[in-house]
Amino acid sequence: MRFLLIEDNAQLGKAIVDRLSLDGHVVDHADSLSAAWDHCAITDYDLILLDIMLPDGDGRTFLAEHRNLENGTPIIVLTARSEVSDRVGVLDLGADDYVVKPFDFSEFEARCRAVLRRRGGAARNLIKRGDLTFDSLAGTLHIGSVEVQLRTRELRLFEIFIGAPGQIFSKPKLVDRLFSFDEEVTENAIEVYVARLRKHLANSNATITTVRGMGYKLEFT
After folding, report:
1. pLDDT digits (tens, 9 = 90+) for 21-48
2. Domain count across the chain
């Protein structure tokens, strides 16, 4: 998953980026509203984490404008304000959830997962397709009763495919979803990770198919 963090506190921002990166997520960090808009103009995000008080304006302005553009990207507001009226206000503007600072990282991560599940129309972390069982919370994949050991980047790549079986993903799109702006990678890296996933799935009824000139898709036989 690719997240955008809009937070001007450098220490907190680094802590959030480091924590989410441990789970294999790509996190772009913007310390102002202008930087956030620049990021959104370049790529799409699975989740936006939005601070309220920013050096060049109010995060609620970003939230309202983002929703006026009919952008459905989930947004979790990070706020130091704990009054009910403040929480109701951001929810009415279109926020999917809020986290009051200071927060426990375990709860923070759980709220991120919950919002992402709702976006995908799922009530649980568990996805079952064909003979595959994927648990995004535990980070495990089973073929039947046999657990498949996936490295972090392989796990996140598989998460993309299993979330939209039959959908074609181009190499540039997969690079965008798996790597941050700071990482220098080529599309060859995607070929390597796809090849590894194909080996892992060799004994299942799932196949990652190459669609010539377009990309890859996950299919079930």
Report:
1. 888 889 999 999 999 999 999 998 999 9
2. 2
For residue 46, what are the domain limits? 2-119
Q: What is the pTM of this model?
A: 0.77
pLDDT in tens, 90-122: 999 999 999 999 999 999 999 998 898 887 655
Quote the pLDDT of residue 120.
Answer: 63
User: Nearest to residue 29, comparing CAs of 152, 185, 180?
Assistant: 180
Do 10 and 79 sit in the same domain of this protein? yes
**In terms of domains, do 51 and 151 share one?**
no
